Every structure is written in C-alpha cells, then in structure tokens.
Amino acid sequence: MDVDLQSLNREIKEKSALIETLLAEIGKSIIGQQEIIEKIIIGLLTRSHILIEGVPGLAKTYIVKTLASSVNAAFKRIQFTPDLLPADITGTEIYNYQTGSFTPKKGPLFANFVLADEINRAPPKVQSALLEAMQERQVTIGDTSYPLPEPFMVLATQNPIEQEGTYPLPEAQVDRFKQKVIITYPNKEEEKRIMKQQTSEELPVTTPVIDIQELNELRSIVYRVHSDEKIRDYILDIVFATRQPSEYGLKDLGVYIRYGASPRASIYLFESARAHAFIERRGFVIPEDVKAMVFDILRHRIILSYEAEAEGITEEDIIREIVEAIEVP
Predict the structure, then answer these.
(1) Longest C-alpha distance within the chain, in Å?
(2) For residue 72, what is the enclosing H or E element?
(3) Rounded distance between C-alpha atoms, residue 58 and residue 154, angstroms
(4) I need a labelling partner for 188 at 20 to 30 A (CA). Which of 134, 146, 155, 249 fits?
(5) How many CB atoms are closer than 10 A to CB 34?
(6) What are phi and psi of 270, to 5 degrees?
(7) Distance of alpha carbon 67 from its chain centroid, rounded?
(8) Which domains does the chain have, with CATH numbers?
(9) Residue spans of alpha helices (H) in 82-201
(10) How far is it, in rounded angstroms, from Cα 308 to Cα 310?
(11) CA 271/CA 278 separation, integer angstroms
C-alpha cells in the first residue's frame, strides 16, 4: 500500500472517532435505525439534502431532531400544510413606520438543519421555494438575496401511504435530494426497548458533541478519501445501465424503465461512497461502499414505465438486478 495512503488511513481512523462519538450520542435517544442514522450522517458529510420516507410513528422527525441536537448548530422545523405560503418559509419584508422603509424578516429556512415535515402536503409554490433554496443556498427577500448559513441541510419527510390532500414532488424536484432513505419498522426487541424508554419518567437528553468547525474538518477529509479509477468506472456502469440496459446484457429491463438516472446520480453515488468509506474508517473506496449507497441514490432517479407499474416491478427490483449484473472491479 502506498505510503501516503497509509498516512491517510491513520488520519481517517483518528478523525472518524468523532463519528463514533456522534453515533453514540444519538444512540442514547434513538433505538435501532442504525443504518438510517449512518445514511443521514453521510448526507451531513457530503453537504446533502435527504428525503426520508416512511409511515407515521417511525420516529422520522425524532431522528432528525436528535441529530441536530448532537451538533452545535441551529435547527428549525417546518410543518408543511396546504395553506402554507412561500414567504412563510423564506421570510418577507416588513414596513417600518418609524423609518419609512422595509426591513427583512428572515424565515425558518435560515438555519443549519431544516426539517421539512411532510413536504408533500405543501402546494407546489412552497415546494419550489424550498427546493430553490436547497439548490442555490440563498433566499431572495424583496430585491436582496441572502446566503443561507453553512452548513445548510434540508431533511424532508413524507408519508407514502396517505395521499389525500398531498402534492407529490415532481421528478425534477425529487432529483435535488441526494438521498431518498426508506425508514422501516423496528424489530420486536428494539420496539420493546423503545416502549420502555418512551414510557419512563425521564427521557434521554441529547447534548452537542461536535461543532461546525469540526464538521468542516471532517468534510475536508472526506474529499481526500482515495478512489481507484476502476471504482469510478463501476459507478458509471451502474448508472449507464439504467439508461441503456441492453448494452449491459439487461435487455429485458428496457421495457420497465422510461427514464434512467441523471448525471447527478454518478456524482452523488461517488461522493456518498467516499463518505461511507470514511465512516467505516477507511481511506479508500471499495465496491461495497458503492453497493451500500446505490439504492438511496438511484431509487428516486429511475422513472418506471407503465409496464413496470402494471407488473408490480419497483425501482428496487431494477437496481438490484443491475447491481447483480454489473461486474465488480
């Protein structure tokens, strides 16, 4: 192994101890859901926005609030409703009678962590205002544009079951979320511990264990995680197989895919695989890092055909078949 890579490995093993501390602090309040928490931390390390999907009662909001409490940063929660207006989240100008001028009143988007609870309950104008802020990392109030704080991370939740009174996010807007994470039920033992914890007299309190400066240092190290050219080619093969499945021996998949993943998928899958290697305390990316992140990166970037919906074929089925077919470097 290269001497520089050995040095990088030592540095990563030392610095990634902060991630262990962060996971331990979150674990005081959150029982189970280890994989989901790690995915959110990967999003934090890669300047991502994350869409979290799951039925009510699975602690989607609680996980995000606990993470925010573990980092010494500003947190805001926005409950999305059908009567919400763009100015309710971005802010507005208020007329000052004494000075005869307008002064800006910044909205809840001006925070480090923004929880967009039930994002699909807000009308398209509000969704657009949020997603514009996610992309540009700035908000315009009146004639002035204000930069959003750094770090700035949107964690949006949505309920996949109840669709009455909702406004589903268009595919182009969903694409701006780096990850779409699916949260599932805890197992019986975990739920028993949750029941005991949540019915006790005192609930666990989460305290900050990492600050913004330390977070920025970790992000800088993630950019230095080594990746062989074969890993980049492996990622490109997976993404291109969603667009041209017949060229990868997957001719049967072509009828089920209307549109394949966008170029964002290649970029985001590489960044996330690199961050996954970091939290695994490695200074280099291996194919398992790519496989660990491929579903979260691709599941909302593959548009299925009517044939797929009619036959009950899901995005996960498509991704699984592609990953099994592509040769591992």
Answers:
(1) 72
(2) strand 71-72
(3) 19
(4) 155
(5) 13
(6) -65, -50
(7) 13
(8) 33-185 (3.40.50.300), 227-325 (1.10.8.80)
(9) 86-90, 124-136, 171-174, 188-198
(10) 5
(11) 11
What is the spatial distance between Cα 314 and Cα 141, in angstroms, rounded to a whole number? 41
Write out pLDDT tens, residues 107-166: 899 998 999 888 888 888 888 888 778 888 888 887 888 899 888 999 988 887 766 656
Cβ distance 304 to 258 under 8 Å?
yes
Across 78-115, b (16+ Cβ under 10 Å) vs e yields bebeeebebebbbbeeeeeeeeeeeeeeebbbbbbbbb
Handedness of CA 80, 84, 87, 88 (dihedral sign): negative
DSSP assignment of 131-151, as one string? HHHHHHSEEEETTEEEEPPSS
For residue 276, give the nearest of 54, 35, 60 by alpha carbon: 35
Q: What angle do CA 62, 67, 68 make, to 5 degrees?
A: 100
Strands 257-259 and 303-304: antiparallel
Both structure tokens of 252: 């049967």
Residue 157, C-beta contacts closer than 8 angstroms, at least 6 positions apart: 51, 52, 53, 54, 60, 61, 64, 115, 116, 117, 118, 119
CA angle 219, 223, 229 (to 5 degrees): 155
- Local confidence band at 1 (pLDDT 50, 70, 90 cut-offs): very low
Over 90: is that where the pLDDT of 293 sits? yes
Instruction: Please give the full DSSP string across 240-302, using - where no structure is assigned.
Output: HHHH-GGGGT-GGGGGGEEE---HHHHHHHHHHHHHHHHHTT-SB--HHHHHHHHHHHHTTTP
Structure-token pair, residue 217: 């240092």
